[in-house]
C-alpha cells in the first residue's frame, strides 16, 4: 500500500484509497491525490450569504428572515444564530447543512443567512 497524504480539509492522517480517489474517514472528503496541491483550490465553488460575504465550513451565520418549517407552528425566527455550518452541493439552492437549535438538522439556502 502506498503512502497517502493527509486530508487537505481536516488534516486527518488515516486516509484510504478508493478507486482513484483518496478518502478521509473523519470528514468524508474525497480528492485525487495525484493532482497537485495547486489544483485543489482551482475548482472550488464560492458560496455567498445574503449580503455577499463568502461562507466557509464551520462559520456561524444568522438567519435574516423568518422561515416556515413544516410541522412547526412558529418556524425559525429572524436573528437565530446557526453555528458550525457545512457547505454542500444541495438541491434547489439549499447549500448549507446545519443543526438549528430547537429544530434539529436541516438544510438552508445561503440567500437567507448572513455571516455573523
UniProtKB/TrEMBL annotation:
InterPro entries the record matches: YjdM, YjdM_C, YjdM_N
SUPFAM superfamilies associated with the record: Prokaryotic SH3-related domain (SSF82057), Zinc beta-ribbon (SSF57783)
Protein name: Alkylphosphonate utilization protein
Pfam family name, one: Zn_Ribbon_YjdM
Domain Protein YjdM C-terminal intervals: 47-115
PANTHER family: PROTEIN YJDM, PROTEIN YJDM-RELATED
Family to which the UniProt record says this protein belongs: Belongs to the YjdM family.
Domain Protein YjdM N-terminal stretches: 4-32
